[in-house]
Amino acid sequence: MKQIWLAGGCFWGVEAYFLQLKGVLSTRVGYGQGAAEQPTYQQVCTGMTGHTEVCEVTYDEKVLPLPKLLEHFFRIIDPTTLNRQGPDRGTQYRTGVYYNAEEDKAVINGFIATMQEHYTAPIVVEVEPVAHFFPAEEYHQQYLAKTPGGYCHINLQLAKPEERK
């Protein structure tokens, strides 16, 4: 069992996408990489806390190895757009991959270097150790499951049927 934290715009869609994948054991959305202690959604939305909306993904690396997980992540983001995904704009919507196992850093950086070959614009996905992760308010957890038809800029159908639970 491993963990990774992914920032890909609004965390509702990132969480909904990853929850449907084989090998994902659990998710939790929250705020990471900022300076404020225990920030609220309203505070993060101001762009003044330095936090980004992230989805913590706990996964079985035997079923879903990190490179495959990153492949999924790159399916649902525009890695060349800074501080924006879909219609969501602001530093809280920047993209990032945050890790807690030092050996993951080389895998992530290698994956991004390989992906860069497919883009003319530079990839701007942050790669850093996870810092200051605070779970979001309960109403944000699995929001799209609780709110059918709720806002989501991510195409949840990008996961192939054989990749789903």
UniProtKB/TrEMBL annotation:
InterPro entries with a match to the protein in the record: Met_Sox_Rdtase_MsrA_dom (IPR002569), Met_Sox_Rdtase_MsrA_sf (IPR036509), MsrA_MetSO_reductase (IPR050162)
Domain Peptide methionine sulphoxide reductase MsrA positions: 3-153
Record's catalysed reaction(s): L-methionyl-[protein] + [thioredoxin]-disulfide + H2O = L-methionyl-(S)-S-oxide-[protein] + [thioredoxin]-dithiol; [thioredoxin]-disulfide + L-methionine + H2O = L-methionine (S)-S-oxide + [thioredoxin]-dithiol
Enzyme kind, highest EC tier: oxidoreductase
One Pfam family recorded for the sequence: PMSR
EC number: 1.8.4.11
Assigned keywords, A-Z: Oxidoreductase
SUPFAM superfamilies: Peptide methionine sulfoxide reductase (SSF55068)
Active site: C10
Functional note: Has an important function as a repair enzyme for proteins that have been inactivated by oxidation. Catalyzes the reversible oxidation-reduction of methionine sulfoxide in proteins to methionine.
NCBIfam families membership: msrA
Similarity-based family: Belongs to the MsrA Met sulfoxide reductase family.
Name listed for the protein in its UniProt record: Peptide methionine sulfoxide reductase MsrA
Source organism (scientific name): Sporomusa sphaeroides DSM 2875
